[in-house]
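Deliverable D5.2: sample structural annotation.
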Amino acid sequence: MRYLLDTHVALRILRDEPISSKAKAIIDDVTTEIFVSIASAWELAIKVGLGKLKYYGGVRAFLDDIKLNDFTLLGVEEAHIEQVQALEYHHRDPFDRLLIATAIAEDMIFLSADENVPKYDVNWLW
C-alpha cells in the first residue's frame, strides 16, 4: 500500500512524537510505501520563516530527515493541481487541500488527524 503523510503527521514522526496506533503500525511495516509531498516542505519553510514553527535546521533538515526515514519525497504534478480544483471547500487551507488532492490523484491513503479530511472523498486513516 502507498500512504501520503499529512504535514503534521510527518512532523510527529520525524520528531518522535506520538501518533495513532494504526498510523504507527503502518509506518513500522516495512512493506508499505510512505510518501511526503514537497508541499509539506513548502508549508514548513513558510511557518519556520514566520516563526510559527520550530524545526531545528529548517527545511533542509526536514528534507534530509525524510530521506533518512526512507520516505519518498513526492513532487506536485499537474493531476494534483487539477484535483484541487475539483475538491469541495470543506476548509480553505491550501496545503491541506493540495495534500488531499494529491492522495486522491495518486490513489494513496492519506494519513492525517485533521477532522476535515473525512469530509472529502479520499482514502483516509488515522
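Annotation notes: Residues 38-50 form the longest helix (13 residues). The chain has a mean pLDDT of 96.
The annotation will be released with the project's public dataset once the embargo ends.
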